[in-house]
Amino acid sequence: MQTLIQSVLTLQHNRLQTVDVLLDDEQIHTIAPAGTLSPLPQQQVISGQDKLLLPGFVNGHTHSSQVWQRGLIPQLPLELWLANVFDSTPQQVEQFYWGAVSTAVDTLLSGGTCLMDHAYLIPGQERETIDALVRGYQDVGIRAVIAPLIQDLPFTAGLPSGCLLPQSSSPRSASQWLDLMEILIAEFHDPDCGIYIGLGPTGFHRCSDELLQGCAELSDRHQLCYHTHLLETRAQHQLAQERYGISAVEHLYQLGCLGSRTSLAHGVWIDDTDIELLASTGATLVHNPVSNLRLGSGLAPVLKGLQAGLNISFGCDGAASNDAQNLLEVIKLGTILHTVSDPDYKNWLTPEQALQMATVGGAKGVNLSDRTGSLTPGMDADLVLYNLNHPSLLPRTNPLQLLVLGRPTEVVESVWVKGKPIVKQGQMMTIDIHTLHNALRHHAVEISLFSPQHRAVESHYHQVMLH
Amino acid sequence: MQTLIQSVLTLQHNRLQTVDVLLDDEQIHTIAPAGTLSPLPQQQVISGQDKLLLPGFVNGHTHSSQVWQRGLIPQLPLELWLANVFDSTPQQVEQFYWGAVSTAVDTLLSGGTCLMDHAYLIPGQERETIDALVRGYQDVGIRAVIAPLIQDLPFTAGLPSGCLLPQSSSPRSASQWLDLMEILIAEFHDPDCGIYIGLGPTGFHRCSDELLQGCAELSDRHQLCYHTHLLETRAQHQLAQERYGISAVEHLYQLGCLGSRTSLAHGVWIDDTDIELLASTGATLVHNPVSNLRLGSGLAPVLKGLQAGLNISFGCDGAASNDAQNLLEVIKLGTILHTVSDPDYKNWLTPEQALQMATVGGAKGVNLSDRTGSLTPGMDADLVLYNLNHPSLLPRTNPLQLLVLGRPTEVVESVWVKGKPIVKQGQMMTIDIHTLHNALRHHAVEISLFSPQHRAVESHYHQVMLH
């Protein structure tokens, strides 16, 4: 069935314009001047009055299972925080299902239609974990890229001078992980259903060159997104110097891991040379401003990156390091945070630029530029209709500025993913939201903070990073 | 009538505890271990199950009439932004009424029970402006301190080397402003009704010493709060050097303007010596993190200030520089922002500290420590009850961390101000919210951006600050 949205405000060519938009099954069919498309029989007609229609945002980086750890782990630097994340990661397949559902709902209700789940795996139940995530995303109806988090070096190897700490063994070798990834890709990668598998080596800090390179080879062969953490913390920067003697970005480049299908989460500690190199490869940097402040990771050089032509998108990061999964919050902070790094206001991000990063930039970061992120005929209808009459978007000034710089709440009226209505009148159409909330209310997470592992790492961290 | 809240989670002595709380008319009567207070006839009984009870926050700095300019003015440094604020300030008394109502509602629904309105005045209708604000706050039932924004130097005098720009004349001399303030205090200062007048000279940058000092004298004589902007921007820092040759803090100190009733908005550019001096006087710094990023003012040295014993509270600042008036958003950003200035996580703010700043710290900043900001018998019942079953506060982990570090939405279930229920089941009890929203939807603001004044200031700003 076709859907006609009449006289709706949109952002076209960086300007607010009122247009008619016709959706045809899965795609955007026509965009025409307001009042020029007349409804035909059997078309569903939606009034665009007091509404704003934007392409769906892409959440470029999250870890859906951390929903269970929201509000759990105190503010600590990544390296100490991680010890606690591992110790409290859910271990039931069903929790991964609900984590995916919850993350998908939060994404949709904050303007997103697509997410990158850099997914934890239950050891020994990797296939079942991915199966649960896929079920969750398909039940909700969001577009999802799932990049299983894999690593073949132990946790402590990811710390500078970490070789001094007791080492645990890795559950699998690089080649075993790569074999598993082949299986997961074959079983779960399903673009027609809006489910994509990506290659997700944790980061150089906990991956051998063999694993990093093997993932790049699989990404090339299957034309899949390559997603990895990059220089999130000062400690990782220091580790790269210890281990490689060159920048981690240069190292990844030499291994052949950087290209237009690569997206790199964080990049807080990249320098000017790294920025140039990243930009030249066509890779995407995913900026996670809330998480970066929450973990004290620092300020990613976003303005410099954009000036160098680097594609930058936004990510929420997991709910253990950003205790909300709200894209509008992340976009707001990402828009205003970088004023502290540059006093010249001509360089500051505008709401229009931020929306471009969240949509077009986000789609490129998950290797889906040809499908989503743009209100253009022929693209999939991944669209969000905002209610400009909501009190949090009053008074009537600049709707884009209110959306990006305000604190919009419950403003998402309708969402379509591949043309299918997923949200109507602010309500989820595909799942029973109460079942989700009951699951969150009653499932328990094993809380185990400040374990012996944490204490060992803390003592090491103090010595290496704070003295 | 007495109200008994049974078995409710609270923060007592920096620890979560479940207690019974009895409210007696205007005040907190008793706090007892959970289950020990039995309901008496004629007591209203409220179940505290799955609820969190906290003292109301204080919004330590805002400008209520800027509600009309929300989403209007682009991201610009304060000095250029201000030219546009002046050019688009509402000029109708009724708009000031609705600005107060809107700000009060946003404050209450984000956990606040008291605010400091550093209030714009309609020239020639100063009395009528304050009257409208008082009506607005009383109709809603919030506790409000109104400090009229007064200045006797022209706008351009507030810019470094601003003497080079054309000067407009000030509408009143210092002594005329002080006479007016006497009249406003006599007519409107009414602690029994929860309405307080404060002295609000705009800031050293646009006030003569005579006005700054005269306000201090009135503050002493009437025991009122003294509230002023302080070193919000680098330009103001430069101006203080030009004009006084010493720090603006030292200058205010020498004029006798700093004391325990003084609260200073921003203080982004105070140095270590200023911090020591401010702490020694017992003054309060009001931290406005969202506004500071939105205007690119910089990072206030909050961690250093707290370590020096300086009282610091939170402010939203006006809606033209923080396009939302949500205290929970401000508290979150204020809690995580300062990790970028100090890598040692032992110094980072905890949710408990942030809540202390927003309540006890906020009350001290508006000279109301003896009345509000604390869940203690004998204090006024300015209390907020949060619904921990709301999806944005799930799953069940640490409720304080979810409240401060999450993105809570519609979690305020009940609010009492001086014992009077103002919000019940998330709904305003005192005013018709639809009338407010209709007013916001239909009143127009005269939009006049980038006037000749703006362009003159911009050219000057570029020359003085960016070259």
Structure commentary:
- 2 copies of one chain form a homodimer.
- The first copy, chain A, is an alpha/beta fold and 467 residues long.
- Chain A has 2 domains: 2-55 and 375-431, Urease, subunit C, domain 1 (Roll); 57-365, Metal-dependent hydrolases (TIM Barrel, Alpha-Beta Barrel).
- Chain A has helices at residues 78-88, 93-108, 126-140, 174-188, 209-222, 234-244, 248-255, 272-281, 289-294, 302-307, 327-336, 351-365, 399-405, 433-442, 452-465, and strands at residues 2-12, 15-24, 27-33, 44-47, 51-55, 57-62, 112-119, 143-150, 195-197, 200-201, 226-230, 262-266, 284-287, 311-314, 383-387, 412-417, 420-424, 427-428.
- In chain A, the strands form 3 sheets. In chain A, strands 1, 2, 3, 4, 5, 15, 16, 17 and 18 form a 9-stranded mixed sheet that branches. In chain A, strands 6, 7, 8, 9 and 10 form a 5-stranded parallel sheet that branches.
- In chain A, helix 11 packs across helix 12.
- At the A-B interface, helix 9, helix 11, helix 13 and helix 14 of A face helix 9, helix 11, helix 13 and helix 14 of B.
